[in-house]
Amino acid sequence: MYISELIINGYRNCGEKSRLSFNAGLNILVGENASGKSTIIDALRMILRDPEQPYISEDDFYKSFIGNVQKRNIQIDVTLRDLSQEEKVTFLSWCNAEFDAELHMEVESKPNPKGYFKKSIWGGKSKASAFEEDTFDFINVIYLPALRNAEEKLTNGRKSRLALLLKHQYKNEARQNELVTAFNDFNKSVIKNKDNKFNEIEKARGDINTAMEKSMGNVFGQSVNLQFTENSFSSILQSIKMVFFPNVGEMDDEKFRDVAINSLGYNNLLYIATVFAELEAMNNNLFTVLLIEEPEAHLHPQIQSKLIKYLQKLSNEKNNLQIILTTHSAVLASSVSVDTIIHVTGTETGITVKKLSDFGLDESIKNYLNRWMDITKSTLLFSKGVILVEGICEAMLLPAFAPIVLRKYNKDHQRKLPCTLEEAGVTVVNINGINFKYFYPLFCDTDWKEERLPIWCSGITDRDPLPDVEKDDEGKIVKKEEKYPVKGEKIVGGNEAIDLADDINSTQRARLYVAPLKTFEYDLAMSGNISIMAEVLEEKWPKDGGEKGVKNQCKQIKNKNNVYIDKEEMREDAKFIYKHIDCDEMGKGFFSQALLEKIEEKNILVVPEYIKKAIIWACGGDCD
Question: Which of 24, 220, 331, 354 has the fewest beta carbons under 10 Å from its own?
Answer without folding.
Answer: 220
